[in-house]
Amino acid sequence: MKEIDKDNLPKHLAIIMDGNGRWAKKQGMLRAFGHENGTKSVKVTVENCAKLGIEFLTLYAFSTENWNRPKMEVETLMKLLIGALKKELKTLQDNNIRLNAIGNIDSLPNSVKKELQEVILKTENNTRMTLTLALSYGARDEIINAVKNISEKVKNNIISTDAIDESIINQHLYTHNMPDVDLVIRTSGEHRISNFLLWQIAYAEFYFTEVLWPDFNEEELNKALISYQKRERRFGKTSEQIR
Ligand code: FPP
Question: Beta strands 56-63 and 97-102: pairing type?
């Protein structure tokens, strides 16, 4: 396989981890088994991204819409999350990875919040890669939240309406300290964005694969990155201007 060019990596990679349920069903197992195995792919992918030199990795772990799943499945996902946070703090420290979370974090169970806050605090000075978990995350929710906060500042004369620009919007999103997304990967053959980082993907490249998330490994990540590196990102300009 072609080598990855370390000088042309996406600075911000975002992944929609999809297909855990189908992966489990294919083997006659319960959906929880798929999520458990999906957690293994999370670990491998986080380590590989850090090793390669990707600076920002954002994983769609739980959407605002996922609250509508059966109560048992939601509980399983929360338990897996707590377990992974407890178990992988050492991996994050060993790899110099900072943990961050975006979404309506207040809506998560206290047990998750506690573990999350602890790992975020303990890894806050790590510098190699920022791993962001999107939890109880919805892009529309994020935008509504930003509009409310900006409106409040306009009302209190902190910001003037004329001053509202892209930078002001960026500063009020959950992702205020992160660059725009360069590459979105979605597994499991679905070709949709499902309310993920709608503002931040304005100029992102997309890579869709049939592979189900629990089967996503180093080779699949490399395929996605090589595909990204073949693309010409024009940001609205012509090819000639880019070259
Ligand atoms: C999508 O598969 C996956 C999720 C909704 C959750 C992703 C969660 C994990 C990988 C495990 C825990 C996460 C961390 C960060 C440790 P699906 O259930 O929608 O699959 P399906 O479309 O085949 O039903």
Answer: unpaired
Distance CA 88, CA 121 (A): 14
- CB-CB contact of 183 with 14 (8 Å): yes
Catalytic residue flag (residue 66): yes
Q: How far apart are CA 234 and CA 227, in angstroms?
A: 16
Does 136 sit in the ligand 1 pocket, CB within 6 Å?
no
At residue 43, what are phi and psi to the nearest 5 degrees?
-60, -50
Whether residue 81 is contained in a domain is answered as yes
10-residue stretch averages of pLDDT, the chain, 243 residues long: 89 98 97 97 98 98 96 97 97 98 98 98 98 98 98 98 98 97 98 98 97 98 97 82 76
Domain, as residue range, for 114: 12-138+180-231
Please tell me the distance between residue 38's alpha carbon and the centre of ligand 1 in angstroms.
6
Q: Is residue 96 part of a domain?
A: yes
